[in-house]
Amino acid sequence: MIEINKITENNYLLITVSGEADASSSIHLDKAIREAMDENGPNILVDCTQLEYISSAGLGVFMSYIGEISNRSINFIIFGLSEKVLKVFGILGLDQLLTIKADKEEAKAALNAV
Amino acid sequence: MKITLTPKFYMRLSLVLAVLLWLIGTLIDILQLLAVRSEVDLGISPIVIQLIECIFLIFVMVYFRYRVKSVESGNFIDLLWRVFATGLITTIISLVIVLFYSSISGTPLAENQFVKVFFDDLNKALISVFLISTFTVWKRLILYQRSKRLIYYWNIFELAVVLSVFFSLTGLTLLSSLLFDLIFAAMAIMAILLSGNLKWVAYLNFKQKWKGILLILLITIYIFYFFNSLYISPGDVEGTFETFDSLFILVLFTFVLFYSIFSLLVILFNLPTSSVFEKKMEEALNFQRLSQSISQGENEEEIFEVLLMSSMSAVYADAGWVEITSNEKDTQFITKHISREEINTVKELVLSAKSRTVMKNPFLSEDRSDRVIVSLKKYHYRSVFVVPITLQNDVIGFMYLLNEVSESFNKEMINIINTFASQASVAVENFRLMGKAIENQRYQEELNIAKSVQRALLPESLDHNQAFEIHAFTEAAAEVGGDYYDTFKLDDDRFAIVIGDVSGKGTSAAFHMSQMKGIFQSLVQMDLSPKSFLIHANTALSNCLERTSFITLTYYIIDTKKRVVDFARAGHCPTLFYHKKKNRAEFLENKGLGLGIMRNDSFGNFIEESQFKFDKDDILVLYTDGISEAKNHENEEFGFDRMLNLLQQNAHYDPVMIQKVFISKLYEFCHEVDLDDDYTMVVIKFK
Hints:
The complex is a heterodimer of chains A (114) and B (687).
Chain A: E1 2-9, E2 12-21, H1 26-39, E3 43-54, H2 56-64, H3 66-71, E4 75-79, H4 83-92, E5 99-101, H5 104-113
Parallel strand pairs in A: 2-3, 3-4, 4-5
Antiparallel strand pairs in A: 1-2
Chain B: H1 7-37, H2 46-67, H3 76-104, H4 108-111, H5 113-142, H6 148-165, H7 178-194, H8 206-231, H9 247-270, H10 274-292, H11 300-315, E1 319-326, E2 330-336, H12 340-352, E3 356-359, E4 371-375, E5 383-391, E6 394-403, H13 411-457, E7 468-475, E8 483-489, E9 494-502, H14 506-523, H15 530-542, E10 551-559, E11 564-570, E12 575-579, E13 584-588, E14 609-613, E15 619-623, H16 625-628, H17 639-649, H18 655-670, E16 679-686
Antiparallel strand pairs in B: 1-2, 1-6, 3-4, 4-5, 5-6, 7-16, 8-9, 9-10, 10-11, 11-14, 12-13, 12-15, 15-16
Helix pairs in contact in B: 1-2, 1-5, 2-5, 3-5, 3-8, 5-9, 6-7, 6-9, 7-9, 8-9, 10-11, 10-13, 11-13, 14-15
């Protein structure tokens, strides 16, 4: 099960992902990010504090936006990854391609630094 | 000659013995007569003659017991016919004797004692045969629907009848002995009570009932004829036959007569209601046909045909049709006694008719699912019953039943039609489910083929030399999986080894896995460094992987001469390595990125190539995340720490044993939770 919420705060869109991102629920994650990329401004923050587990399908969703993020100069920042999930991102090498911050404050700071 | 003791054998034996005994009895009678004439005492006691008679009767009973087999439903008339035939033969013979006597009356032959004795005995035997055969058939009819109690009472009665055979040995007669009277009265009452068991009559149809009445009437006439010839001395041929004063015969007469009269009356009174009974039977049979229709490999159309036919006959409809709408447009019609033009007229009339009775379907709210009875005016069909046919709460069609009589559908009929319609729905549903099951079975077979094809993609033997031992294990969650491992001998001292995992599971993963196999087999021959192998593989895969798919892979080159391993990691789980000297295991972590994530030239920037030395008894464990990320029911992962400890504790084993320990510990950890990912491990131990 996965729960995704979107709120516009200040100058960015905050996507909150909670639960488990597995093969079936990743479709919702993909849809949410797709909409955010299409409709909202260049600043997107993804709050993964409540994300308990991510499967390869979930990773595949994040992976598929890497090219578009850099091409369109979108500030796409993920924060709040648990140690376990962060490790999965790290093994696959996604941490080299995506901006990953520890918490919301750091994420906001990174956004403003740009 | 070997004699097998079959019922047929007993039947024939008893027949032969009965005939023999009768001949002996008659012979003795004649001899006795002769002796009396010549005033010689033969010394044969009358008891012996009576005993022979008794035993004769017993054998006749045994014969008929085997001869008249138990009743199967429907052959009641055959049985009655048999009694009738036996009666006919015996009566004809008896009549012939009487006629013969009357024709020779006055001649010396008529006065001949020998002839008289012979005919007397013959007559007695004929009557006994007829009575016993009728008795046996009545017995079968009474016991057609048997209860424990009935069998109990019958056995008592039958035993009494058999014993009464020997009552004649006492020499008591009906008129002179009170004991005789009492026993006779008791047995007659039993006979009358048992005669109340006439359940078989209900199973006769109208035609059979008429036949039954006719046959039983004739049988009753025989009985009267014989009774008359025995006990009521006819005036004209006075004293033709000796009276036959036996309890056995009297009881049989009473029983046979009462049962005949009872059945005659019961069949007669059952005649008017038999059509109702037949109708109910037919409905039950139709219902059964509907339920069985799928098992006979019939198709949906045939099921609807059975439904229409059964329903029409149940409500005496003059015409009707079933229309089934499949996939929105196509409407299929199954019609009976009505043309398509007429169907359209009737449907228009039904829609516009004012006089209609609507019965709601309690399970469905849709208007379409209501059953409707419509009365039509100014049309030759006066009443129409519209029954929706539903399948899993969807109305898939309608059945129209038409009748030329107005208000012809009563409540009972409506109920029956509803039952028929729902039974047909069940049959169709089962039919469709069966189709799906067969289809699934086919997919399953296809998957099994895919499984064996995929299995063949994994190496059967792993390339290695004297410097190391290698062992691999793999298991897929579904029939096919996305895990991959392979080896290649670059030269005598150098071996390429690869382990990979395709994102996702099942069929799509299996396809990508086979692509990976192709890429490995072609690139490995170029003898590339691990890093450039991954760069080339990434380029090759970038064009064929879907947007969200990627492959993780680690590529190793083992050089047994230099005793080093070069490797590069494309986002795959870090390799587990055990140093014998340090007696410590660790994960070899370096920079890497999954194949297909970066689909351009910059991929190489994210890959780091590393090298490590190995010594004797060092161990390399390659695995996929199915092992490290396996979860137990508390949602806890098997995890890297557990793997590290496991390897340290079991490093003294050979690769096969290490793999076995890992997998058994993994199963133990997951316990009852199904492993829902593919898992693979390759264990290398250096020498």
